[in-house]
Amino acid sequence: MAAKGQCLCGAVQYAITGSLGEVRYCHCLRCRQANGTAFSTNARIPEAQFEMITGEDALTSYEMGPGIRRYFCSKCGSPVFVKIDRDPGFIRPRIGGLTGEVDVSIAAHVWAGSKADWHEITDDLPQFDEAKPR
């Protein structure tokens, strides 16, 4: 069964097959700025598990750092996924766009050392000041 997702306006629709694997809350400044929230919720999946259903022409990207490209809907701005050159064959979909029931288990908070001062982490998930090793 595939998890389906879309952007806010519905122009970009996609499906993810297979497991979402280890999903993490990322508190780095770039994720906070890109999403306008205290953290982003990201999976790391093989690119082959991600299928564009419609809206590939509406997808645009921004290089947020050397070799790190963020893809989002050009119409409504919804974040869809990130590709990182140093991790070929994998993408990091933003889990917030998934619709319906999705089997997600959050594994950790990463980049908690740079979390927003106004946000308090109140759960018992492991916290890593930087990226958690895979």
Ordered list of secondary-structure elements with their pairings:
Layout: E1 3-6, E2 13-16, E3 23-26, H1 29-35, E4 40-42, E5 45-46, E6 50-54, E7 59-65, E8 68-73, E9 79-84, E10 90-93, E11 98-99, E12 106-110
Parallel strand pairs: 3-12
Antiparallel strand pairs: 1-2, 1-11, 2-6, 3-4, 5-10, 7-8, 8-9, 9-10
Question: What are its keywords?
Answer:
four-stranded antiparallel sheet, Metal Binding Protein, Guanine Nucleotide Exchange Factor, Chain A, five-stranded antiparallel sheet, 12 strands
Structure description:
The mean pLDDT is 93. This protein is mainly β and 134 residues long. 5% of the residues lie in helices and 39% in strands. The chain has one helix at residues 29-35, and strands at 3-6, 13-16, 23-26, 40-42, 45-46, 50-54, 59-65, 68-73, 79-84, 90-93, 98-99, 106-110. It has one domain (3-114): Metal Binding Protein, Guanine Nucleotide Exchange Factor, Chain A (Beta Complex). Strands 5-10-9-8-7 form a five-stranded antiparallel β-sheet, with helices on one face. A four-stranded antiparallel β-sheet has the order 6-2-1-11, with no helix packed on it.
Q: If you average the pLDDT, what whole number results? A: 93
CATH class category name = Mainly Beta
Number of helices: 1
Poorly predicted runs of 5 or more residues? none
Q: State the separation between the terminal residues, measured CA to CA.
A: 26 Å
Percent of sequence in beta strands? 35-45%
Largest sheet: 5 strands, antiparallel
